[in-house]
Amino acid sequence: MVASVDMISDLLQPTIEALDLELWGVEHIARGRSSLLRIYIDSPQGITIDDCERASRQVSGVLDVEDPLSGEYTLEVSSPGMDRPLFRFEQYSQFIGDVVNLRLRTPIDGRRKFKGVLEKAEADQIVMTVDGELIEIPFQQVDKANIAF
Q1: What is the reported pTM?
Q2: What's the alpha-carbon Rg for the chain, to the nearest Å?
Q3: Could you tell me the domains of the chain?
């Protein structure tokens, strides 16, 4: 069985919260016969190596019992870092005024990649200033996003 990233997030959320940490996001990247499961954790105090180790041990136990992924995979637990990826719409509002990179599922005006200042994130719309122009992008169009560092 191969669970979706959302299912894995839902599965791991209580475990991460029990450690007084926030589950920032989950990525599952297929690599031939194996895959990489990357778990991003955060906290207001920042993330230490010890936090990553504690979370990794707990997450590994849950994954061993629940077995949401078929085949071999590597588990990686880390902080989101300076160029933190954005996974959920509600995360965008924390970064109003910051420069953001977006990659879209389908092109808008012939472009799939945008880099600009995040102006607003409301009503499932992301508003950015790109090359001096204000653009609105529906959140459902976003394939990948991160803070530009």
Answers
A1: 0.90
A2: 17
A3: 5-78 (3.30.300.70), 89-147 (2.30.30.180)
